[in-house]
Design goal:
391 residues, alpha/beta, Rossmann fold, 7-stranded parallel beta sheet, 6-stranded parallel beta sheet, 17 helices, 13 strands, globular
């Protein structure tokens, strides 16, 4: 099968959730199919990206977006009902390049990740098309608006309103639809939402594998892209509110915050008790040196890759209902779940004082990853859509 994949970012390095999902899905698809990977980008491309991706796919095209046109598109967005992020990524010249690439390739299937790319292919009726919503973006925006600074709330709420309508509207232009979890599927407000196929993320269990004799020099770890607002919010809450409560019971407790592009607010959390690492070439180092993974997520949507990685490394995981509910029941049972800062602190203290429970939860978590979150198995769900009759 010839598969044309359209992304809004170059999926390397793997510092963002959409990049991680795209990279592993494309890698699995390329084992069986001829894949044309087409990436839009508004950022400089990592020097290793072309080499890594070219070795993986049959065809690679990277289309830079012009900054000046992005500014003009955002002005135009003020007078439109489409989401700002759809306008941000849409440029006429890039659309011509995408269409030319598709027509010359002649795919059997177009796979479009995120609604922000959908305008590029929605009118290409000659080709079967699949839209990966990935997350219910409208829900993440609504949650973000609740705790955003007052001057940003009107803009975020407006984007959420537009996104609800657009996620519904764009549904009609695609033959198949996928999303990351059942929780997110329920938040796409279309009468046929039940036809959206849940395609979970996976975890590279061979890579994120526990060490036989790990060296634990830190009690708590939180990971993720530290410019992503839900992660920034979680890091600040963890370091400023939760950690001091833990320290009352365990005075020498230490926290590691690991992930790319930490904002000024995250960098400001650095202290004798808090290490802010920034980008790590090997994220396993952050997991293997820590005793407990903690993710106090209050906003955002979708399945948390950070949880999957930590579980795969046999770390006991403490998180909130918001993050846990995207997991299947068996995996959810491996987690310790609390929502209020005081409860998260109390559970962290309890786990740090109970090595046996930490060990048993860690082993159960990895077992759940091996059963439910294999990239080959989850990508097979996607492939099976393309052999079913068109709707």
């Amino acid at each position: 099968m010839k598969v044309f994949v359209l992304l809004s970012r170059v999926p390397y390095p793997l510092e963002k959730g959409d990049k991680l999902r795209a990279f592993h899905q494309v890698r699995e698809l390329s084992k069986k199919h001829e894949v044309y990977l087409c990436c839009l980008t508004d950022q400089p491309v990592d020097s290793r990206a072309k080499e890594v991706l070219s070795a993986m796919v049959a065809h690679l095209r990277i289309i830079p977006l012009r900054k000046s046109l992005i500014a003009l598109r955002m002005l135009r967005a003020l007078f439109s009902d489409r989401p700002f992020q759809v306008h941000y990524f849409l440029q006429a010249g890039a659309r011509r390049e995408v269409k030319g690439a598709i027509d010359s390739f002649g795919p059997d299937q177009i796979y479009c990740q995120l609604v922000r790319c959908s305008e590029y292919v929605k009118h290409l009726y000659a080709y079967p098309k699949t839209l990966d919503y990935m997350d219910a973006l409208n829900a993440g925006l609504r949650r973000r608006a609740e705790i955003a600074p007052w001057f940003l709330r009107p803009f975020i709420r407006e984007e959420a309103r537009r996104m609800v309508a657009y996620e519904n509207l764009i549904f009609e232009y695609f033959d198949h639809h996928t999303i990351i979890s059942e929780q997110d599927r329920q938040l796409i407000y279309h009468p046929a939402q039940h036809t959206i196929t849940v395609v979970p993320n996976g975890a590279d269990a061979a890579w994120f594998a526990p060490d036989a004799q790990p060296i634990k020099d830190t009690e708590l770890v939180f990971t993720g892209n530290m410019s992503y607002p839900p992660n920034v919010n979680g890091a600040v809450l963890l370091a400023r509110d939760i950690l001091p409560m833990i320290a009352r019971e365990i005075p020498d407790v230490r926290l590691r915050i690991a992930g790319a592009n930490p904002t000024a607010a995250v960098r400001a959390l650095q202290s004798p008790q808090v290490e802010v690492t920034g980008w790590l070439d090997d994220m396993r180092d952050a997991y293997r040196r820590s005793r407990i993974f903690i993710a106090p997520m209050r906003i955002g949507s979708g399945l948390q890759n950070k949880l999957l990685e930590a579980m795969s490394m046999e770390l006991p995981c403490l998180t909130t209902t918001l993050a846990a509910q995207a997991m299947p029941p068996e995996a959810r049972e491996c987690l310790v779940i609390a929502d209020e800062p005081a409860d998260l602190a109390s559970e962290a203290v309890r786990l740090l004082r109970n090595e046996d429970e930490c060990r048993s939860r860690g082993k159960a978590g990895r077992a759940a990853i091996l059963r439910h979150f294999d990239w080959q198995a989850t990508t097979h769900i996607l492939e099976s859509l393309w052999t079913s009759p068109r709707t």
